[in-house]
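Hey, quick one: can you model this chain's 3D structure?
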Amino acid sequence: MISAKVEEYAFGGLVAAVGVFTLVDATTIVARDDNAVGPRAFPYAVGVLLVVTGIAAIIATARGKLGHAEEAEDVDENVRTDWLTVAKLVAVLVVHLVLIDVVGWPVAAALLFFGAAWSLGAVWWRALVIAVVLAVVVQVVFAYGLGLSLPAGIFEGVPFLDG
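Sure thing. Here's the predicted structure for all 163 residues.
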């Protein structure tokens, strides 16, 4: 059995490594020079925060501040994993990834949001309405609020959906 201290070091190292990967990968983003903030700002910020958090976790572990397992009074350890729900969520994610380029973000995202909610037990018609509204809002915010273009797909040319 691996000691808790080794696990804590591994966690901090993994978080820092993901941060370094994010920072290195952000340098490959092609950006126009006419935007003050640009599309690299968010990945750089996330990468720096991940590196700082990972290093902080390693330092805290070295100082003896280990995380303690919770009592988890509301968790039933006898309940098995619902693999059907996990499979539905994975399938919905794969369908989303395949459909983004085919039908565009609004449709693919609506299917993702609806499928995830339905898989987790939401009322289907309510989840469908919320999913469509949320997908359109995200598309409009990215297109006009951030100036970034998500693929509009079948809605190419629709003024408020096509960034």
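One thing worth noting: The two ends are 53 Å apart (CA to CA).
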